[in-house]
Amino acid sequence: MKRALVIGYGISGKGAEKLLLKLGYEVAIAEQTVEVPAGDFEFAVLSPGIPQSHPIPTAMKARNVPVIGEAELAFRHLKGPAIGITGTNGKTTLTNFLAHALGGKALGNVGESLAAYAASDQSENLLVVELSSYQLETLQTQLLDAAILTNITPDHMDRYPSFEAYAKAKWRIIDCLKERGVCFIPKKLDDGRFSQVESIDADSYLQLSLKEGYWAKLDQETLALAFAVCQKFNLSKEAFFQALETFEKPPHRLEYVCEWNGVTFINDSKGTNPAATLYAVERIPGSILLIVGGDSKGLSFESWKEGLGKKVKAILTIGKAGLMLQEILTPYYEIHQMGTLEEATHHASQIAQVGDTVLLSPGCASFDQFKNYAHRGEVFKNSIQQLRRGI
Length: 391
Known about the structure:
It is an enzyme of class 6 (ligase). InterPro entries: Mur-like_cat_sf, Mur_ligase_C, Mur_ligase_C_dom_sf, Mur_ligase_cen, MurD. One of its GO terms (molecular function) is ATP binding. Helix content is about 35%, strand content about 20%. With about 400 residues, it is α/β, with parallel strands linked by helices. The protein has 3 domains: about 5-70, Rossmann fold (3-Layer(aba) Sandwich), CATH 3.40.50.720; about 75-245, 3-Layer(aba) Sandwich (UDP-N-acetylmuramoyl-L-alanine:D-glutamate ligase), CATH 3.40.1190; about 255-390, Mur ligase, C-terminal domain (Protein-Tyrosine Phosphatase, Chain A), CATH 3.90.190.20. A 6-stranded parallel sheet has the order 6-7-5-8-9-10, with helices on one face. Strands 11-12-16-13-14-15 form a 6-stranded mixed sheet, sandwiched between helices. Strands 2-1-3-4 form a 4-stranded parallel sheet, sandwiched between helices. Helix 5 links the parallel strand 6 (about 105-110) and strand 7.
């Protein structure tokens, strides 16, 4: 029987195992901490959270065993048509919106794993696939009819040696386009290096009258990119805005939690890099008490020194990066060093005044204190509910 090795056994690894078993392979599993498995393998499947420099994939390559990613395994067995979405920020909301607008299935870095879906009956007519830089590193199959690259700002500097290396991984989405596929990008990203690219100028491309609430769902640039893709798939303007009207944004992304004692609470736990926090602060009117911190991922926070602006009344720091952020930002802002998110939420509610907004937009990963960003967001919301109940 053919043998394949799955490296990593989280959601992606389990999905890869499911697909490989369906394809008739005997599957061996290697966790990150185990020794290099013995035996012969036709190929190895690497989970996206494990870097290619890890000892196990390195050893497989030394033994001339091909190493592919879980996404690449799935791409070889998925049925199109398909749209790929990547970028530093905004890709999950955009993926969900396009699936909603076009009647497709959201997959990849959101929802069901790619390989698990590839092992199913694949009943959907259109796939909308969110792809992280980790997944794109090993992708090469040309499955995509269209793609969107939303933006590129520094992130995951604990994995990549430079911003250029991170950006290169993001641009690999173009390599996954079919011959007549096109990747839509903001005009500011178009430097003329790539073919199969259409740059979108949001100011001139989307001259449409929008209801005020639409901007809370997708910003103007993202709306323009979404509209361009929907036009490629022959969705009318009327149907596009009807879909926008009925679309519900995923949680933890500038999510309104409540207003209590005249103070608004906003959960932006998905803001896991400095640019995302700057964006969140820009979108919220009025004075802000900002909760930040977590695992910094090796990122620079120099842009926060003056970039957060005068609307930020105070910053409450939490987690592993708390002390570092305090040192960087103390000359510019009122800083409150807190231990936990619960403590920060409670303290923010005490010092906030009527009309203020308490914003959780950490600018950091969550893994130092939480299972993931969703867990962090739920802890924030639960802390607010406990405050309201007087617990």
